[in-house]
Amino acid sequence: MKQKITLLTVLALWCHSAFGACGDYYYGQVSTYDVFDQTILDVGGFRPFLLDLSNTYYGDEEAGEQDAGNLKVWQQLLTKSSIDVIKILVYTDNDHIRQKVLSEYPTSVSTEVSQYLQYVHKANTPINTNTVNTWSYADYKESQPYDTDALIDIAYERYNTVSNLQVKRRYAYQIVRLYFYGKRYDDGIAFYDRMPSDEKGNDELSYYLLDFYAGCHFRLKNTSIAAANYLRVWANSYDRKIGAYRSYHFAQQKDVDISQHLKTSTEQLYPTLIANVSGFASEQDAIRQIGNQSVDPTLYNVLLLRAVKSLENAASESTRYGLKEEGPSFPIVSDELFKRGSALKSLVHQSGKHLDSEQQSLIFSYIDYLLGDIASANTKLSNTTSAKYMDSKKVLKVLYEVSGWDSITPDREQTMMQWLDTSQSDDDPIFKLTDIVKERVGHLYLKDGQLAKSFLVHNQWNAVNEIFSLPLLDDLIDLANSNDKIGTQLLALRQNGITSSPNEYFTYHKGMYYLVNQDYDQERELLENNNLGNSIGSKGRRSIHARVFSNWINPSYSSDDPKAMTDSVFLSKPLALSDTTLSRVELVNAIQSLHHLSQNGKEWEQKLSHYLLGNYYYNISNQGRYRGNLLGIGNYRTYHQRDRFNTLVRSADYIEENKLYNMEYINANDFIYSGEMSQVRKHYRAALSLSDDEELNARITYLLALCDQKDLYYSQEYIHGDKWGDKVYDGTYDDVAAKYLKSLPVLKEKFGNTDFYQQALKSCGFLRHYDAM
Amino acid sequence: MLKYCYAILLATTAFSCTDHNGTPEENPKRFQSEMSSSATQFYHWKKSLVLDDVTKDALKTMETKRVYVRYFDLEEGGQFSGPQPTYLIDTIDQVLKDYDIVPVIYVKNEALSDVYQIEQTSKKVKSLIDEISMYYFGKTIKTIQVDCDWTKSTAKNYFYFLEWMNYYYDTEVTIRLHQIKYAEETGVPPVGKGTLMCYNVGNLADFDRNSILDAQIVASYINSETSYPIPLDVALPIYDQTVVKNRTSEHVRLINENCLEDLKNHPRHFKEVSDGTYEVIADTIYRTFALSPGMQLQVEESEISAINESLEVIRNSNLVINDYILYHLDSTSITNINLSEINL
Q1: What's the CATH number of domain A61-262, 1.25.40, 2.40.50, 1.20.1300, 3.90.76?
Q2: Which of A64, A316, A436, A515 has the least CB density, counted as fewest CB within 10 Å?
Q3: Residue B67 to residue A389: CA distance in whole angstroms
Q4: Residue among B81, B88, B121, B268 with most chain A CBs within 10 A, to mutate
Q5: Predicted ipTM?
Q6: For A723, phi and psi rounded to 5 degrees?
């Protein structure tokens, strides 16, 4: 499974009281592959410290408190009971069950255990008598806090009187624990220090005790003692590793020297080892340092597995942006990776004596694969035959095979479809490889010129909403009309709830391509008989409001209400539209009608047609409020694809120039809105030249000023939100602004006495600012 | 060590009038004090406020009208985010519905270290106080008291917190001796009334002096020239306690009881080394404390002489004194001492 971590989501959003604008954002991803099975070695309680970039503590933190170690200690006393039964016994508050389980044991044991478990049930709820994470008294009363001092009294009395050593030790644990929660840290330390060594022991229970003892020291700011003891708990306990790991790092925040408190040479290694499982140092260095010292083999194993996973991560593609030009993204063999992998193999040869031959074969096989030697990887993999490693072997076998494909064949297509279907189930380990298979097959399709299939390997149909590529749309339509069996399966797999036929759907989008490119004849021809082109769809997704031909005085971006567009000329002749939504066909009819009238109509028709066309082209420009609506997407989803150099690019260009490795990550908005205002100005100026209506002319001059303002935003002096650090226009009327905003003086001087000007002054802060100068 | 009998029922008149030190014309502040003086008030500081019959009777006999009840402490959040309420009161005897209750919250300076959280914290504190009042008394309460050992460095945040509490309530505060003496440095809290804490004045580890109250210590902070901008009540001790300290006196703990009888009765673990002071001679857990040989325990009692001498010091100052509050409301404390001998 490929893990994708979005690193950057950079949103540049800038608005001004008078002039609003939205930016766009770009994103990058880190891709890593989680192929290697880390469960092939026994890591005991260190499982949470396996390397996992997606989950903290390998996902074990969510699994709740660990108790396996504690239950095993119980089993040493309750030898006739299974772990499952002991677990029920320990957690139940039902006395009948308790007595039933303990009836198998002598009274001396059953009485003391039963009494202890009843006590613990009380002492465990809630954890702290005096500190509650609530400001609600009702919640506090609900929590039924207990009195730690009273509980310590009981525990101490029984600690002195019970005959069973394990039960006595458990009371000792409760005493130290309750001292800790009662904030009586000195007393906890004093009690622990006075305990005879046989009561402290060296089993899991001893580390439960030590954990709270360390806690008492920590709260008293005896940080080095606390850290050393947390380390011991981390290294030796089964259940309390995560807690001790966290506590150790808290205690070590001041970087205290704890070496004086670490007694043996093995203990002296602990700081290095914990640093390694924290990802702050090389696992290989840690394995080397362990050398021949007798550390728990599970600790060795976790470091080794982390080292292999670390190599796997290093072989994965690092952070990248935008369209996928190069591949494969895994494994990427560099000189550095080769050195690391070779060193790891050598290290395992030297120090991994406790590993069996099949474990070694699996590890060496995978390292060879990461280093690019698929043949050797396959040979070593064949040495693994045990059933317990079959899942791991199956995954690696497929991985090696797919990585060796250099062309697409019908058999491979068929195999790919099986894997894509397998991806529906997380249970099958093959699921891990889906992204790798898709990347490879998608690439091979593209290499073979099969654009549509390559697209469908990675994308749902609706990704074409934002890709304006004629060759891709044509290929998708061709595929939809073909009898290609795999193509049909792929189309079905990626339909994702769309009810239209593929032909109708992709033809509609081809029509949209022509709409965006202002080839209205082609658009109408494609959409005239297309259901999608003639309907508005649910929630008006394929509609645009007739107010796209209107305009506004205050270009606020805060409202989606079309009534914010106050100018109602579009409701009258020559357009005479209703105040309603238009299908795409109705839209193109209106545009074409206006273009015709602007050339061939009567003078007043020409004037108003130019005026309405100016409105339309402004409204679909990158500052217009219908810029996203035109495409059936929201105005705020107007981010664009970027290449690795963070430059705006279009997927369509990459497709046409054959620059893509495959079609993964191409579904960002490809339509780069027009920032160029000449078409808008042309129509407004034509309207102005035909008009002697002072009020209309004042409004048109104001709209021309908005065009000037857009030029200012996108001027050389101000690059609007392309990248972080870009200088953006801050709304000041300075020399640069004066250079671009040429219509403003005209508006003020020529139309300052119009009603429109007074109305605009009320609505537009920038105009007020200018007018007052 | 003296143990007083249940003399409180005889002490009624002692609380209403004693040494006036002159006429109102001669000493106007004194007159003001007596004019506003009411029946004896009490503090209650434990988690559980359940009154036995002795205490209930005593409250009636002494015509007590007002009881200061600690609701909760406000501490730094620790494992939780932001300041948190701790040691919330568990129960309040319904008998107290008939009394004028003043909720008290104890605030640790660290809880107010982030000035940006103070406004929010004050709202939460207000909400919790009201919830507890509603829970036990079916109504909200107008007057509260805030107890905090603020210093020069923490005064700014604490006073800001008080401004917020003043917005919600008629807020009183506790004042410690050092805050009277060094008022210019530590500042004067922005409230209308304070309570001078005349107990816990000494060093617990110093077994040569009674840490509960020592008039000499009071006199080292207050003299005839001492004044304070806001009127004060005076809180006086009637409790006993036992102090536990380790060999080096680095760690000192308190048992809020007079343990003298226990110490006498356990010679296997405790040996008397001087009047009221015992040394641990064998490991033991006592009152939940893990005690080791060499550690010492000292029983401290509130003493009439120390109380009256301290009152004398205070009355000879320019402090404006209104009422008196006795610490602590429980049957042990109120039977500890012959209250009629206190010169209130």
Answers
A1: 1.25.40
A2: A64
A3: 74
A4: B88
A5: 0.79
A6: -140, 160
